[in-house]
Amino acid sequence: MSFSRGQKQLAAILLTVAVLAFLGLASRGRNSSKYRSLKQDTSAGLFVRLPQKNYTEITDAAGRTLALVPAGSPRPEGFSPVRTIRIPPRRVVAAAGQFDVGLISGLGFGRSVIGVTEKKEKWHLSEIKEGLESGRVTFLGSETALDYERLRTLEPDLILSPGGRAGTFLEQLDWPAIQTYTPKINDLTVRLKFVDLMAAIFQRPEVAASFRQNLTAAVDEIQRKVGSAEPTPVMWVYVGSRNFYVEPGNNWVGEIVSQIGGDYLFSKTLGDSTVPVTTEYFLDQGSRAVVMIVYPFSEQVFPDKKALLKFNSYLQKIEALGTGGRVYAVNSIFYQSFGRLDEIVRELAAILHPEIFANQKLLFFREIK
Predict the structure, then answer these.
(1) What is the pLDDT of residue 15?
(2) What is the torsional sign of CA 261, 264, 265, 268?
(3) Is 211 among the domain residues?
């Protein structure tokens, strides 16, 4: 079997990315026992295989195998039209929310997006906001109530699917769709594999390597500056008026926090995504949090700690709500910025250790005083 020069380059870069993942991020912090390694879960979909003769196999989050086929090349045997993605795609519909678009944009492919599931006022990304204004990008309704007739008129090359019933229906249409959300643990490895996947789909695997290198450089620099400083106790939560949800320790945010000078208080809590916990467990694990990071529900705005305490009085038992603690809300731009993960990590470091990173301005988070 012979390979073209481009396929050999792709294979070499994919191998390089794999080595970076295993030897780079997985080994961060081995010089200090307070940093735990980032595990590499290879079971959770989103996998790019080495190229075949005229195509590259990928596995999406639903475990389906699809073929990436350069424009003009024949469809490989054994792959139906809806399991064959012509690359690079020029007309992409992001039916799975803001995260996918944020990553695509951050990797430099934002102009390929022609359909989204959020209205113009929700977007911070200029190419999407301006596209909705000009008509180049179409609003297709919500993830759970897509306008399929309007979707048909767009004639997309690729649909990024949320899975579930919507994903099943999308696969019945005439265009290839990949599921981007995995119900398995949403750890850093899964997120980085999605970067690999998008880079392969757009025939730019070097951007995945660059993404990892930038993230590794940020983590390295932070660890070097933090040194032997005491880890900051931190929790990352959704707060309801009568209930609590926490980011589990095996989610990517818990892993990142533990790598950059944080003592993540729910590190032993495991789950697929945000996990509902009892009030007793929340207070038992989180009472000594010096920093609390809050996902606002819907359009919640907490102008100060008093408003947050009024909303949920149990929070008065959390150290972060006291005079010596700090509370931060996640800004809406955060959800569209995974392509800027190295910048997010630097902001988090400043939140955990403001005495070390005093000049860091906040964009993805805001302090609630």
Answers:
(1) 38
(2) negative
(3) no
Q: What pLDDT is attached to residue 305?
A: 93
Which among 321, 328, 287 has a CA at the least distance from the CA of 306?
321
The domain of 324 spans: 229-368
The answer to whether residues 174 and 269 belong to one domain is no
Tally Cβ neighbours within 10 Å of residue 103. 26
Is there a contact between 38 and 191 (Cβ–Cβ < 8 Å)?
no
In a domain, 310, yes or no: yes
CA distance 280 to 93: 43
Structure tokens at 328: 């931060």
Can you give the CATH number for the domain in which 361 is found? 3.40.50.1980
DSSP class of 80: -
Give the pLDDT band of residue 105 (cuts 50, 70, 90): very high
Q: Tell me how crowded residue 198 is: count the other CB atoms within 10 A of its CB.
A: 26
Total structural domains within the chain: 2
Q: Whole-angstrom Cα distance, residue 113 to residue 96? A: 12
pLDDT confidence tier of residue 50, bands split at 50, 70 and 90:
low
**In a shared domain, residues 189 and 241:** no
Q: What is the distance in angstroms between the CA of the first residue and the CA of the last residue of the chain?
A: 64
Residue 183 lies in a domain: yes
Please name the residue that has the structure tokens 């949403």: 186
Q: Which two tokens stand for residue 101?
A: 């678009």
Buried b (16+ CB within 10 A) or exposed e, 275-305: bebeeeebeebbeebbbbbbbeeeeeebeeb
CB 182 within 8 A of CB 45: yes
Rounded distance between C-alpha atoms, residue 126 and residue 137, angstroms: 12
Cα 261 from Cα 228, distance rounded (Å) = 9
Q: Does one domain contain both 76 and 11?
A: yes
pTM of the shown model = 0.84
The answer on 171 and 73 residing in a single domain is: yes
Indicate whether 217 belongs to any domain: no
CA nearest 89: which of 111, 112, 106?
112
Per the CB < 8 A criterion, the answer to whether 158 and 95 are in contact is no
54 and 187 belong to one structural domain? yes
Q: List, in sequence order, every residue forming a beta bridge with 368; answer none if it has no partner.
A: 327
pLDDT in tens, 220-258: 999 999 999 999 999 999 988 888 999 999 888 999 999
The alpha carbons of the chain give a radius of gyration, in whole angstroms, of 21
